[in-house]
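<backbone_tokenisation>
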Amino acid sequence: MKKTLALWAALTAVALFATGCTVADADAPPAPTAGSVTPSAGNKAPTAPAAPDLRAAAYAKWGLKPLAAPPAPPAKKPVTRTAGGPVPVVSDIPTADRVVFVTIDDGAEKDPEFVAMMRDLKVPVTMFLTDAAIRADYGYFEPLVAQGHGVANHTLTHPNLRTLSQDAQRREICGQQDKLTAEYGKRPRLFRPPYGNWNEATRAAAGQCGVDAIVLWRESMQIQNMQYQRGDRKLHPGDIVLAHFRGPSELKGRTMTQMMANLLRHIQEQGFTVARLEDYL
């Protein structure tokens, strides 16, 4: 009997040696592999966390919810200037799309937080810039241009053009065309007369300077609310909205980013989103 037990022990040792186990290991459960999870009684294996919604987080940073994506640009622009024809004057764009267009004038306020806001939100705007307001710091607008926002003409010195001769108007418009082209590498196609004041001499001068359209507006953003031109006091498809580069001194202590957030809320609450003006005009 002793010989039989000794023989059995010897054979077991050989088998365990061949498998790399010890006698103690023989009755132990298999060790978990690297990175595996051993579920305990009543627990389910953990699942990977959902990927964060980066767009929602970017909007939440500015107290907003994401705007709807705009539709694809029209295959043919609704407004174009015919070769050799008069420069169109527009306050809105003929479209059935539930879109409006945000435009920002002058350039006096140069808030770095606004650059960050536009980078985060990726909402297209068109900037109508005046040399008198930006000549000391054209560089502020370079990151906005790099983000894809449009650059347009708002004259050299922001005069009431209706008080000037056609030649004087041409100098104001063409002069700013040249400056914006030199600074940002692309000649503007769009022009907005200061105060919205224009006459046929303005249209002729703009045409001589290579402008494709004179752009007015339907709504203007103040601090918290919009001013409407129509009696129904609401947005319509294709409306052009006017805002300004303004700071706390002109916004009763509010910042430009707060004004822009209010503007986007009004647009969203009325069931619209923002499209790129240059895609339609």
In short: The beta strands are 89-90, 99-106, 125-129, 150-153, 190-191, 213-215, 219-221, 226-228, 240-244, 273-274. Residues 1-46 have pLDDT under 50 and may be disordered. The chain is about 30% helix and 15% strand.
